[in-house]
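step: validate -> pass
step: tokenize input -> pass
step: predict -> running
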Amino acid sequence: MQEKIVTIGDSITVGELAETLHLSVTTLVGELFKNGIAATINQRIDFETATIIVEELGIDAQLERKADTGEGEVVTRPVYEVSANASERPPIVAVMGHVDHGKTSLLDAVLDNKTAEGEAGGITQHISAYQTVRDGRAITLLDTPGHEAFAALRQHGAVLTDVVIIVVAADDGVKPQTIEAIRFARNANAKIIVAINKMDKETANPQLVKTQLATEHNLNPEEWGGDTIMVEVSAKTRAGLDKLLDNVLLIADLEELKADTDVPAQGLVIEAHMETGKGSVVGLLIEQGELKPGHFMVAGSTYGKVRTLLDFKGGALKAAGPSTPVTVTGFKELPQFGDTFVVVKNEKIARAMSEQARIEREKAAASTNVTGADLLKMMTQQHEAEAFNVIVKADVQGSLTSVMDSLRLVDTNGAVTLRIIGSGVGNISENDVRLAADEHTIIYGFNVDLSPAVKQLAARDKVQIRLYKVIYELLDDARESMESLLAPEVVETQIGTLTIKGVFRTTKEEIIAGGEVTHGKAMAGLLTRATRGDEVLAEMELTKVQRQQQEVKEVFEGDMCGLSLKITKKVLLEEGDKLEFFTRELVKRTLS
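step: predict -> pass
step: emit ->
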């Protein structure tokens, strides 16, 4: 009987392949999982992976690659350049710095609100956008996460930015996240202003901060002949804040920041989450054009129509222009953090653009994450590493992205395989628990809630749910959980060596011999390995040591002694054989 020939493209979803082969999705997902790939029904796999799986399942079918004809309409995103008629726009300022150096407190003082009180551990967990007014001119401020696990978010914060205010505590100096912020700002070609905070403290030492930045990071203060503006401030007393904002506006004037307002609006997604009764609630930062209620917009692989348009305080807007942070509702699905959004003429164009973006994203995921080469490698290594399965739920899209990226960066040297088998924005659901129960999985919730019904179901199905509000605590838990999967390491410690000078008696269970300790010491209770040249003869236990006819606890290098060795199998020792005395213990392995 001739094999059935099935034609597919360069990539195909798991669901589509199952339907094409007349298989249940469960069978196909199970086979992928057996070979090290935790795939979902909508995940795309490449042609080579599909071919391997068909062979593994023993299906009487042959896959052929569909020829690419290049036909079909391609919808591209418009690219705009600032025109001669562009008008002045507010500067976009990212506030960055090390944990506890007071960047959010500084923003609070500028905006006169109390943001930090609502944050877990005083650490900003996602990008928040605000606007303030100085001398009748607007300034857009972005508060970026302060912990290193949110490096991806903070990097986006720099890319969005004209000016980066790097907050350094006058009593603490330059720290790792300070250096990271400097690097991000430079990569984004943003102008840098240093705010030396906590000048109200007695231990404040602004000269030390300036010296560190100048000598180690090539940020020379203006008063030292350099070109970096450094302002001494205090979030507590509000000293220096006016000077700080004046310098932001000065840079804006020098840079001549402009944007067009008579073009379709476009910008970046800086936050996205679901709200009951509202659906997708998305934070946007407009780069150019004007966004109004009723506009059709596309962001990544989703689209929608602007139902509500709110400013950062929650007030309704009729229109929002360049450099303005807004919150909108109306997207069909949640866009991803960092997606570019653009306004289009009608829903038909929006739908076509989002569908094309979806296909491209899935193809990219298939080519980078689940390739035939990867699958073959996983199939040969699947028994060499333990698997740690997790489901991740977070309050907003940006936090979800960062948590997942940070989990993937936990280095296990190949000893443990992390599999994120599910993820999403919103509270943990009963479906999450059921999926976790099937796959022996831990559910991590970040800034989300747990309903009594879900908690009861998890207890019944013995599913572990771990809720966190601080990112590094979640990552520490994941690291410890992965370490618990590692088999302990066998560690041998050499204590001494001896050369046998004579064998006096050998029985079924014991050898009596004598010799000279050539290194270290010999003592009762040690494990002993007998060797003759390069050959290992046996392992034994040293049960008794004698010196000058007297039993002793230990004898040292250069001493002659008598030995009693307990054996488990018959071994014949000879003069000149070597004995190595050692201890053996099981040591818990770590990922560090």
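step: describe -> The chain has 14 helices and 30 strands.
step: cleanup -> pass
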